[in-house]
C-alpha cells in the first residue's frame, strides 16, 4: 500500500483541518495517509519511508510560517529526490506559502511535483462542504498519481 506523509504547521487550526480532509481523500484512493504536526517530526527517520509528501503551512506576512522554514531545513537532509510532492495551506488574502513550499520541494529537494500544483484554500471556505470536497479531491488525486 502506498504511504503519504502529510506534515503541517497550523496556528489557529485551519490548515490542520485541511490536513485532515486531505488525508481522507488520500484514503479514498486506497493509499495510507499519516498526518503529523511538524513539531512531531524531529529526525530524518521520521521523514523516511513514504511514497509521497504533502507539506502544509498557512500564510503569515506573505510567507510560510517560521516553524515551517526550520522544518524544511530538516527535510533537506532527507533523500526525497523523485518522490511525489504537494503543498497546501489556508489563507485570507494573498496565500503565498504553499507555492513557496512547493518550489522548494521541486527545485531544492528535486521531488516530483504533483500535476495539481500547490493548493490554497481561503479560511472562510475550509469548513464548508465545498472546502472539504476540495481538500479531499486534492488528496485523492495526489495519491492516485503516485
Ligand atoms: C499576523 C497575521 C498575518 C497574516 N498574514 C497573511 C498574509 O500575508 N496573507 C494571507 O493570505 N493571510 C494572512 N493571514 C491569515 C492566515 O493565513 C489565516 O488566518 C490562516 O487561515 C491561518 O491558518 P491556521 O489556522 O492554520 O494557522 C495572516 C494572519 C495573521 C494573524
Keywords:
146 residues; alpha/beta; Rossmann fold; 6-stranded parallel beta sheet; 8 strands; 24% strand; binds flavin mononucleotide
Report on this model:
Helix 1 (14-28) crosses helix 5 (129-145). The chain is 40% helix and 24% strand. Strand 1 (3-8), helix 1 and strand 2 form a beta-alpha-beta unit. It has five helices and eight strands, in the order βαβαβββαβαββα. The protein starts with a strand and ends with a helix. It has one domain: Rossmann fold (3-Layer(aba) Sandwich), CATH 3.40.50.360. With 146 residues, it is an alpha/beta fold. The chain has helices at residues 14-28, 44-47, 66-76, 97-108, 129-145, and strands at residues 3-8, 32-37, 52-56, 59-60, 63-64, 84-91, 112-113, 119-122. Strands 1, 2, 3, 6, 7 and 8 form a six-stranded parallel beta sheet that branches. A two-stranded antiparallel ribbon has the order 4-5. The mean pLDDT is 97. The radius of gyration is 13 Å and the shape is globular. The structure holds flavin mononucleotide (FMN). Flavin mononucleotide binds at residues 10-15, 58-62, 90-95, 123.
Uncertain regions spanning at least 5 consecutive residues: none
Helical/strand content category: alpha/beta
Instruction: State the order of secondary-structure elements, H for helix, E for strand.
Output: EHEHEEEHEHEEH
Bound molecules: flavin mononucleotide
What's a concise summary of this model?
By secondary structure, this protein is α/β, with parallel strands linked by helices. It has helices spanning 14-28, 44-47, 66-76, 97-108, 129-145, and strands at 3-8, 32-37, 52-56, 59-60, 63-64, 84-91, 112-113, 119-122. The radius of gyration is 13 Å and the shape is globular.
Amino acid at each position: 500500500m502506498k504511504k503519504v506523509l502529510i506534515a503541517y504547521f497550523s496556528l489557529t487550526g485551519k490548515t490542520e483541518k485541511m490536513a485532515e480532509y486531505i488525508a481522507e481523500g488520500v484514503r479514498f484512493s486506497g493509499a495510507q495517509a499519516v498526518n503529523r504536526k511538524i513539531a512531531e517530526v524531529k529526525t530524518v527517520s521520521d521523514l523516511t519511508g513514504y511514497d509521497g509528501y504533502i507539506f502544509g503551512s498557512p500564510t503569515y506576512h506573505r510567507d510560510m510560517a517560521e516553524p515551517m522554514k526550520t522544518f524544511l531545513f530538516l527535510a533537506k537532509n532527507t533523500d526525497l529526490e523523485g518522490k511525489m510532492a504537494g503543498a497546501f495551506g489556508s489563507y485570507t488574502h494573498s496565500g503565498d506559502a504553499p507555492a513557496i513550499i512547493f518550489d522548494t520541494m521541486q527545485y531544492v529537494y528535486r521531488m516530483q511535483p504533483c500535476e495539481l500544483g500547490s493548493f490554497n484554500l481561503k479560511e472562510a471556505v475550509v469548513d464548508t462542504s465545498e472546502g472539504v470536497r476540495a481538500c479531499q479531491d486534492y488528496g485523492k488525486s495526489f495519491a492516485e498519481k503516485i
